[in-house]
Amino acid sequence: MSTEMSEGKTYALLHTIFDDSPIGLVITNVNGTIEFVNKRFCETTGFTPDDLIGNNPRILKSGWHSKEYYTQMWNTILAGQAWNHMFRNKKKNGELYWEQQYIFPLKNNSGQIIRFISIKVDVSRQKEYEEKLIAAEYYLKSIFNALPTLMFVITANGTIREIMANDEQLLYVERQAVINKNIQEIFPPEKAMLFMDFINRTCETETSQTIEYPLETLKGYRWFEARSGLMKNMDEPLIIVVATDITERKNYEKQLQSLIETKDKFFSIIAHDLKNPLHAIMALSEMLTNENYIKENVTEIAHMLHEAGQSAYGLLENLLEWSRAQTGKIIFSPSKQNLSSLVDDSITILQNHAFQKNITLYNCISDSIEWTLDRNLIVTVIRNLVSNALKFTPNGGFVKIWAETQPDQLVLCVEDNGKGIKPEILPTLFTTSNITTPGTRNEKGSGLGLLLCKELIKIHKGRIFAESIEGQGSKFFVELPAL
Questions:
Q1: With b meaning 16 or more CB within 10 Å and e meaning fewer, what string describes 261-282?
Q2: CA nearest to 443, candidates 269, 277, 270
Q3: Which of 102, 291, 318, 324 could anchor a disulfide with 329, C-beta 3.0 to 4.6 Å?
Q4: With 70 as the cut, is the pLDDT of residue 4 above it?
Q5: Number of helices (H) and strands (E), helices first, in the chain?
Q6: Angstrom distance (rounded) from CA 49 to CA 33
Q7: Cα 65 vs. chain centroid, distance in angstroms?
Q8: Do the two domains 3-123 and 147-245 of this chain adopt the same fold?
């Protein structure tokens, strides 16, 4: 058999192999003119061999790629190097499709490029899946980034494989310091034990678990709620943990607990303190209706009725104000006020009480002091503070109200020379745990007045506190900032 016949058979065999190949094949000369296309490429593009052979591959140009892209491709293959890239071309019907393109320069024995062989794989379906996957990942990240959450991927033995966080300040330590580290290496023993128990329960039950825990994070002290899920269809079981910052919720729960305590305080006041003056009123009024009662004692009974009614009224008034403060229904209306005049109005109703105990009430405030404040609220504060001072000051004592102005605040003081306050009681004065003590004439108190004062001063963004020496007297200070 001659060499020419052998080469012809070899060429025919290669032609058959190339034509029947499951991947697209295009051969061009060095100028880019198409000399051969196989069946797969024609099936993919919709072009016939007659459409393509003798033509330039630009017939498939989609307009998707830039001029610089083509320049780079030609520079690469003309330099004798292979080109490997994902390419977007256009079918005969105008439909765009993606192909993975491999272009190899074919050289002769002298090393000259004589052909370009282009292998093309239609990857449109793969590209579509990739784009959908990227879009899904983008949406998931967008949703995740909108939530105050942390996501952890953890192995069954407690090794942290991955962390996703829209706010890394919520982490215990920086992210890179915990990846591929075990929980027991990162957290203190007590906290690590809590988290490992959480992981173990998830693995053992194969159901979602939930825990709440506090943690000192890079952002400060926070509360979290963590939920777990088990992924079993992996090389190793993985636990997905989503932790949500619930600090605000915990703060609300704390406030709710405080409101419950306040409610209990109300019930205590109503059950014990309010019934005392009401019982007195009922008993005294019954005495007046008794025919055998000596009429000469009517004045004394009337005085006692007045005291009981005044006590009940003051308590109800404070309850009403406290309720309004707690529900945010107090309207804050500050205006410039003459402080001496305001104090006079506050203590007028208390003059009779002071007279009965032979206590001197001093308004020591200069007529020149004016300050911007809510008149009604501060009158209530002064009335309560002076009423308390009268209660704990013995006969012949004094209660004085004085004030001084500073560049950025007003300092108001109600001072007495009464029995004073025990050191252990002083820190509890403005709290619901305040322990009330009887006055010098066994006057009863609820402790609500000081709580109310604190709320009303808080509305002014001010401060109230007390100083006292047992047996020598007390000073109650109110600091009001300039408004």
A1: ebeebbeebeeebbeebeebbe
A2: 277
A3: 324
A4: no
A5: 14, 17
A6: 13
A7: 46
A8: yes
What pLDDT is stored for residue 3 in this prediction? 45
CB 328 within 8 A of CB 365: no
* Helix extents (H) in 79-188: 124-145, 183-186
Give the Cα separation of 175 and 167 in Å (integer): 11
User: Rounded to the nearest 5 degrees, what angle is found at the Cα of 248, between the Cα atoms of 242 and 254?
Assistant: 120
DSSP 277-332: HHHHHHHHHHHHH-TTS-GGGHHHHHHHHHHHHHHHHHHHHHHHHHHHHHTT----
Q: Which CATH class is domain 3-123?
A: alpha beta
User: Is it true that domain 330-483 has CATH number 3.40.630.10?
Assistant: no
Q: Which two tokens stand for residue 117?
A: 């062989």
Nearest-Å Rg of the Cα atoms of the chain is: 45
Q: Which residues in 99-121 are b (16+ Cβ under 10 Å) and which e? A: bbbebbbeeeeeeeeeebbbbbb
For position 10, what pLDDT does the model report?
47
Does 147-245 carry CATH code 3.30.43.10?
no
For 475, the token pair is 């000073």
Does residue 390 sit in helix, strand or coil? helix
Higher pLDDT, 364 or 126: 364
Cβ–Cβ < 8 Å for 395, 359: yes
SS3 of residue 178 by DSSP = coil
Residue 421 near residue 470, CB atoms below 8 Å: yes
pLDDT at position 129: 82
Name the average pLDDT for the chain. 83
Phi, psi values for residue 399, rounded to 5°? -135, 125
User: Residue 299 pLDDT > 80, yes or no?
Assistant: no
Distance in angstroms (rounded) separating the CA atoms of residues 13 and 21: 12
353, 463, 345, 359: which is closest to 412 by C-alpha? 463
Q: Are 400 and 382 in contact (CB under 8 A)?
A: no
> What pTM was computed for the model?
0.45
Q: Where do the domains of the chain lie? A: 3-123, 147-245, 252-328, 330-483
Q: Token match 């030609």: residue?
A: 74
Topology of 252-328 in CATH?
Helix Hairpins (1.10.287)
- Is the sign of the CA dihedral 317, 319, 322, 324 positive or negative? negative
pLDDT at 285 over 70: yes
Asked whether the beta carbons of 62 and 90 are under 8 A apart, the reply is yes
Q: Are 251 and 208 in contact (CB under 8 A)?
A: no
